[in-house]
Amino acid sequence: MQTAIIDYGMGNLHSVLKSVRTAGQLAGKNTEIFLSGDPDRVSRADKVIFPGQGAMPDCMAALTRGGLDEAVKDALKNKPFFGICVGAQLLFDHSEEGNTDGLGWFGGKVRRFARDLRDRQGCRLKVPHMGWNTVRQTQNHPLFQGIPQDTRFYFVHSYYFDPENPETILGESDYPSPFACIVGKDNVFATQFHTEKSHDAGLTMLKNFLNW
Q1: Which of 85, 97, 129, 157 is catalytic?
Q2: What sign does the dihedral 140-25-35-12 (CA atoms) show?
Q3: Active site residue 194
Q4: Exactly one of 59, 97, 157, 194 is catalytic; which is it?
Q5: pTM across the whole model
């Protein structure tokens, strides 16, 4: 089995690679895990992980410039697919960040947190939302195996998913109001948080993906 981590020059790639390889050891899977910016090699992989970090317009431009957008679209249709952070945001129709069109796999938009967010005590909340936050699993999913409800994951983002279809929401977090932080449909699973920075919980989720 081959698992490709898409390298389009945007993302915490070596940290993702290290985490996925550790997860592969935990899963006991005989799988080749590699970074690649070659559309043909990505297309030949059995599973695809799509990370991202940075500004949405830059990420989308880099993806298209490298000819990887078609490989991503093909993988979304045909194989287990895991999107992480901006790699997850790119799966939506449109983002308010740079007024950027995405790949349109999920209907809906990526919106910016309000500039004057306040918690229940009236204290101002910083944007970006950065640090550990609990995640509520709103549906059952194989990738949640061994992960308790309200487990904490690591976030760094100023924009959040606003899915058109609530049935695609698999998990939510609060900042301060609920927002979708995990979405999924069929063979596709995507998280706003960084699994590669989420210690044991992130490794368990990646292990579950390799076993999926």
Answers
A1: 85
A2: positive
A3: yes
A4: 194
A5: 0.95
Distance CA 167, CA 182 (A): 11
Exposure b/e, 46-64, CB count within 10 A at least 16 = b: ebbbbbbbebbebbbebbe
Which residue, chain included where needed, has tokens 């697919």? 81
CA distance 111 to 141: 25
Burial of 137 (0-12, 13-18, 19+ CB in 10 A): middle
> pLDDT (tens digit, 0 to 9) for every residue of the chain, 212 residues total?
999 999 988 777 889 999 999 999 999 878 899 999 999 999 999 999 999 888 889 988 988 887 899 999 999 999 999 999 999 999 999 999 999 999 999 999 999 999 888 888 888 999 999 999 999 999 999 999 999 999 999 999 999 999 999 999 999 999 999 999 999 999 999 999 999 999 999 999 999 999 99
151 bridge partner residues: 135
Fill in the DSSP letter of residue 123: P
Q: Is 123 part of the annotated catalytic residue set? A: no
Tokens standing for residue 155: 């976030």
Catalytically annotated residue among 129, 172, 196, 199: 196
Question: Residue 90, exposed/middle/buried by CB under 10 A (0-12, 13-18, 19+)?
Answer: buried
Tell which residue, 156, 164, 160, has the closest CA to residue 93: 164
